[in-house]
Amino acid sequence: MLDKKNGKKLVTVLLVLSCIVSGIILAASPDYKNYQIENARELDSLLNVHIQDAQIKAEQIRVSSIRIDTIFTRKEYRIEVPSRFSKTLFHVDLHKDLFKYDMQAPAKVHFPSHDMDIYIYDQGTVLRSIRLTTNPELDSLATPKE
Asked: Which one, out of 18, 28, 30, 92, has a CA that is 20 to 30 A from the CA of 63?
């Protein structure tokens, strides 16, 4: 068995080795990239990219501003989609992108219509809301996002 002196040396060597391995892992890991949306225009641009990726046409979208108080207004996107359009997939894709910016995008589904409201939060403030409503008249459109 190890005596006390050799045991201390062994513990010291193992401690040094673990520090070296930890340093190598830390040096090899990618840098944390802090994405940040600087202004409302950038957020709107990000939303428009998602809307275009979902192949939603401009005629299906209405954007209005809601006055919250004397200094803050929030944009609301009302989007009509065919009944086969996957609102959940749209929400998940948007949520993944916003997560990089430390933003949240909780959603509320209304039954029985299955319409969805998505709220885009940053630091406890709702910055945008998106209402996805089903319009059966649009079912004749091609909807690749299922």
From this structure: 92
The DSSP bridge partners found for residue 73 are: 67
Is the distance from CB of 134 to CB of 81 less than 8 angstroms?
A: yes
Query: What's the mean per-residue pLDDT of the chain?
Result: 89
Give tens-digit pLDDT for 130-141. Answer: 999 999 998 886
Q: 38 is written with which tokens?
A: 């600087």
Q: pTM here?
A: 0.73
Q: State which H helix or E strand residue 18 sits in.
A: helix 4-28
CB atoms near residue 85 (< 10 Å): 25
Selection from 124, 126, 118, 48 nearest residue 89 by Cα? 118
Strands 107-110 and 115-122: antiparallel
